[in-house]
Amino acid sequence: MLPTLTYLQFHLVFSLPLIAVLWRVAPRYTGVRRRRAAAGIAVLVAIAYAYTTPWIHHMIRRGAWSYAGGAVLVRALSIPLGEYLFFAIQTVAVALACHRLGFDPAYREGDFDRLPRAVGVAVGLALVPLGLWLVGVGDRFLYLGGLLAWVGPVFALQWGVGGGYLVRTSRVWLPATLLPAAYFWVTDRIAIGVGTWRISTEFTTGVAVFGLPIEEMAFFVAAGLMTVNGIVLFEWALDWRDRRSAVDDSVLGEPSDPANPTTRPVSDPIDDR
């Protein structure tokens, strides 16, 4: 049997090398695009900490997952330091993968169509009562139900803002979500196998793929999806703002300033896109 890895050793072996590789192959933006890409990642990391910490704290306190003796050196709010690091690591990894695959954040007519936005909001909001109902059905649905209830509000918000854009760019955000998730599935299964952490059989359905509970698989997909959608929508929203400002300036008769992206003509793309 392989020796148990501490959580920090897990990051040294699996997580940080992934970040290094993705950083090496990520596109080298300049100008406006570089600043917006960096700001988008920073904002998503901050949101990940603010939104995920209470949920992870609750799930750990309930016993949905636990850690091997000696695998955790420091905790805060019952959450291991390694788990806190994972919030940032997964967010950055998914964001870099998204940029490596490439996406166009330009606003297009139809991105605010009501139908995809309404459907996205309806699905997201429906996940909340569904998840809470599953939690109430029995302990074995705690992880799955809690996950659905956690994801639902973010899904509804993101699709409510840019559902039309997300439909139009699905060929980008789908692989950007699934490819990093597949990597984390493999490394998560290894960590479970060597005993770094343990997923409770009491609070999961018992359905697994190659020994990895489906709840864990769903978590990496859900967290990745929220990150990718957040990354692309952040830059898309800024582009929409720029175009709206350019239209407002043209209506007022103010000339476009090439040095200021907020006053460029509506048809001009962001430099260094």
UniProtKB/TrEMBL annotation:
GO cellular component terms listed in the entry, alphabetical order: membrane
Membrane topology (UniProt): Multi-pass membrane protein
Membrane-spanning parts: 6-25, 37-56, 84-103, 115-135, 141-161, 173-197, 217-238
GO annotation (BP), single: carotenoid biosynthetic process
Pathway given in the UniProt record: Carotenoid biosynthesis
Matches recorded under InterPro entries: Lycopene_cyclase_dom (IPR017825)
Keywords: Carotenoid biosynthesis, Isomerase, Membrane, Transmembrane, Transmembrane helix
Top-level taxon of the source organism: Archaea
Sequence ranges assigned to domain Lycopene cyclase in this UniProt record: 169-228
Pfam family, one: Lycopene_cyc
Location within or outside the cell: Membrane
Keyword Magnesium on entry: no
Positions of region (Disordered): 249-273
Keyword Transmembrane listed: yes
MF term (GO), any: lycopene beta cyclase activity
Main location: membrane
NCBIfam families for this protein: CarR_dom_SF
The name this protein goes by in its record: Lycopene cyclase domain-containing protein
UniProt lineage: Archaea, Methanobacteriati, Methanobacteriota, Stenosarchaea group, Halobacteria
